[in-house]
Amino acid sequence: MLRFKSLGSGSSGNATLVEAKSGAHTTRLLIDCGLRLRDLEARLEEAGTDAQALDAIFITHEHGDHIGCARSLVKRHHTPIWMSRGTWLAIQDPHWQPLQTWVQEVRDGQTLACGELQISPFTVPHDAREPLQLRCTNGDRQLGVVTDLGHVTPHVVAALQGCHALLLESNHDPEMLQRSSYPSFLKQRVGGAWGHLANHAAADLLRQIKHSALSHVLAAHLSERNNTPELARACLSDVMGCAPSDIDVAEPTGGSGWIHV
Known about the structure:
By secondary structure, the chain is an alpha/beta fold. It has one domain: 4-Layer Sandwich (Metallo-beta-lactamase, Chain A), CATH 3.60.15. The chain has helices at about 35-45, 65, 70-75, 85-90, 155-160, 175-180, 185-190, 200-210, 230-240; strands at about 1-10, 15-20, 25-30, 55-60, 80-85, 105, 110-115, 115-125, 130-135, 140-145, 165-170, 215-220, 250, 260. The strands form two sheets. Strands 6-5-4-3-2-1-14 form a seven-stranded mixed sheet. It has a seven-stranded mixed sheet with strand order 7-8-9-10-11-12-13. Helix 8 (about 200-210) runs parallel beside helix 9 (about 230-240). It is globular.
């Protein structure tokens, strides 16, 4: 059994819990922990587990809405934490040094073993030091997780082929972004090649990786100011050939329900 649940998604903080179960054993991977520690612990409890039960943490990049309480979490529970060399260098400060025993540097193309899970990181274009997104498998089912990328590359498309479920950034509507009160530099950053995926770009990526066994799409990292769930659903459902209501959307604070892959 492979399932996942967003614990929160958006500029206010991102965290995704992935579980793989075989017999009596359950492997739990936390992808990003961009929340306050008490909020993360509360949402893990709502999901039926706790921070102590996590087998590993995977940090996609160093931005605050993704790394959040990682240091506090590792300090409290001594949970192994994976990140790229670039991310590790980007977050260097004296408070992290005592915890480096628990940090494992990972890279694009590497396969990581975590209990019942295998994790395959891949690089994405984003304005961070060495950002990684990933796919997870229990050997039977495949989950792709891809947020925080400014544009779709052939490498990203190749990395996500054959997924049965997808957590996919659908960050903004370009017209809403241009009409927004954001300063010009921020509009250029969000909408640029190293920023975030617009709805139509997310739909284009989905079109390139869609296959008959891709059954679940969770739209994630929606901008609260420059997008709406309705717009994101409309773009993605058009590609999937389903009703807009069949596309799940991860909320900033509520995240999502459990999705079985």
